[in-house]
Predict the 3D structure of the following.
Amino acid sequence: AMAAGVPDSAITVETESHSTLQNAMFVGDIEDLSKAAPILLVTHRYHLPRANASLRWAGFSDITNVAADPDGGLQITPSLLWESVKWPYNVLRAGAASAAEAGNVPREDYIQYLE
């Protein structure tokens, strides 16, 4: 983002999460960030779809994906293959977290399961 000219003051980096779902949830907790505000999502090309889905799950809607890796297209790598395992796991964990939240379960009781 900085290489594209985005000023430092417009960049938010969340550093406490241990997973994509936690990252989306914790970004949603940032007080000065509106979930309706436009967001540039910058991550590796193979990770963009799951990261975007996680942010949408957390309530964000105006998301523009930006690939941080060079324009080499998708290459079959261990990271890309690992994404095929992470997708269904992400969906199950997001569903469980949503059910816990709907049941008024305190976040600290389930947040570790989103790691």
In short: Residues 19 and 111 are 11 Å apart (CA to CA). The chain has one domain: 8-114. The mean pLDDT is 89.
